[in-house]
UniProtKB/TrEMBL annotation:
Domain spans labelled Aminotransferase class I/classII large: 32-392
Cofactors, names only: pyridoxal 5'-phosphate
Alphabetical list of PROSITE patterns matching this protein: AA_TRANSFER_CLASS_1
Domain of life: Bacteria
PANTHER family: ASPARTATE AMINOTRANSFERASE (PTHR46383:SF1)
Protein name per Swiss-Prot or TrEMBL: Aminotransferase
Any Pfam family matching the protein: Aminotran_1_2
Keyword Transferase in annotation: yes
Gene Ontology MF annotations: transaminase activity
The species this protein was found in: Paracoccus albicereus
InterPro entries linked: Aminotransferase_I/II_large, AspAT/PAT-like, NHTrfase_class1_PyrdxlP-BS, PyrdxlP-dep_Trfase, PyrdxlP-dep_Trfase_major, PyrdxlP-dep_Trfase_small
Length: 400
């Protein structure tokens, strides 16, 4: 009899966190490290949002709130969905959690049973499959290669649906690829789902505002209103407003699901930070200038990184529609040996050798379910990105 649970044995530590930690350790040893592994904006939280947090402390808003969010914040979330997505929700159909991750976790834990299946397009955010496993269900990974733009096709979706399928997780624009579904592509998927009434949609829209080149964001319940009653639309303030550490996410869906998620949250974390909720209220209802400013900076950085990587021998880097990641292929480097003597047989070999030999930390593609690729987060300064790309170019040139 072992002390640890079977469920904890089914999951792995986050590879992105592990790579970030390894980079921090090397930096502490005095190495010159550029970490491009964490998905976190490098900008400060906008002034008016920070001030709202300070004001909340000074006003004594430091006590428990309603389990899944203050009524005022739920009302602001409802206004956001109406204003930006054309979706009507009542406060009873909205939940607020400690980050978007908790919203996703609560939804899966509140609905999944052993034997259930969840469709997860690959490449995927590393936490999706392990959340499904923790709930006792089975993640069904569907490969979405570069040839499809890293996007799920209607044919692949239809082929993955079984009588056991309970959820489809759809992340647009996506982590790690930055791929986004336009209205035509999204409608093609929702048409398939209309013929599968037992399948619910978990829409992870956390990168909604980080889209480029005129790409128009859309979300499943917006494109196909008939799916609204079996869709949970998740979002948050972390990426849009540089508030990763504030830990506020929110979701909207059918009231029965929202109540179940609140019940689960009442026995785990209870309410999110009261201070952070007041700051999130200011973010959603206050000036939105920061969003356009950060989008401009991220698009410039994307172009810098894509251009630089496509000049590296053995690397092919598609141009993503959104988020702040690129997901290049290293097909041309497989089978080669680095200057430092590492034989590159996998993308994990590549990422480890790149960190040890050049000091650039990236995340290997196998962590996201699609190889041979690697992910770069370009949420850092232009200067660091220019330096990192130059180091990667030298590393690739040295592979023989």
């Amino acid at each position: 009899m072992t002390f640890l649970s079977d469920s904890i044995a089914r999951v792995q530590p986050s590879p992105t966190i592990a790579m970030t930690q390894r980079a921090s350790e090397l930096k502490a040893e005095g190495r010159d490290i550029i970490s491009l592994s964490a998905g976190e904006p490098d900008f400060d939280t906008p002034d008016h949002i920070r001030q709202a947090g300070k004001d909340a402390i000074d006003a004594g808003h430091t006590r428990y709130t309603a389990v899944d969010g203050m009524p005022a914040l739920k009302a602001a979330v409802a206004r956001k969905f109406k204003r930006e997505n054309g979706l009507d929700y009542t406060p009873a159909q909205i939940t607020v959690g400690t980050g978007g991750k908790q919203i996703l976790y609560n939804a899966l834990m509140a609905t999944l049973n052993p034997g259930d299946e969840v469709i997860v397009p690959a490449p995927y955010w590393v936490s999706y499959p392990d959340m499904v496993r923790l709930a006792g269900a089975t993640p069904v990974m569907v490969p979405c290669p570069a040839e499809t733009g890293f996007k799920l096709t209607p044919e692949a979706l239809k082929g993955a649906i079984t009588p056991r399928t309970k959820w489809l997780i759809l992340n647009s624009p996506g982590n790690p690829s930055g791929a986004g579904y336009d209205r035509t592509a999204m409608k093609a998927l929702t048409d398939v789902l209309l013929d599968a009434p037992h399948v619910w949609v978990l829409a992870d829209d956390i990168y909604e505002h980080l889209v480029f080149d005129g790409f128009e964001f859309c979300t499943p319940a917006q494109v196909e209103p008939r799916l609204k009653d079996r869709t949970l639309t998740m979002n948050g303030v972390s990426k849009a407003y540089a508030m990763t550490g504030w830990r506020i996410g929110y979701g909207a869906g059918p009231e029965t699901l929202i109540r179940a998620m609140a019940k689960l949250q009442s026995q785990s974390t209870s309410n999110p930070s009261s201070i952070s909720q007041h700051a999130a209220l200011a973010a959603l209802d206050g000036p939105q200038d920061y969003i356009a400013e950060s989008r401009t900076a991220f698009q410039r950085r994307r172009d810098l990184v894509v251009s630089g990587l496509n000049q590296c021998e053995g690397i092919t880097c598609p141009t993503p529609q959104g988020a702040f990641y690129v997901y290049p292929s290293i097909t041309g480097l497989i089978g080669r040996t680095s200057d430092g003597g590492t034989q590159i047989t996998t993308d994990e070999d590549f990422a480890n050798a790149l960190l040890e030999e050049t000091g650039v930390a990236v995340v290997f593609g196998a962590a996201f379910g699609l190889s041979p690729h690697f992910r770069i987060s370009y949420a850092t300064s232009d200067e660091e990105l220019t330096d990192a790309v130059a180091r990667i170019r030298r590393f690739c040139a040295g592979c023989r």
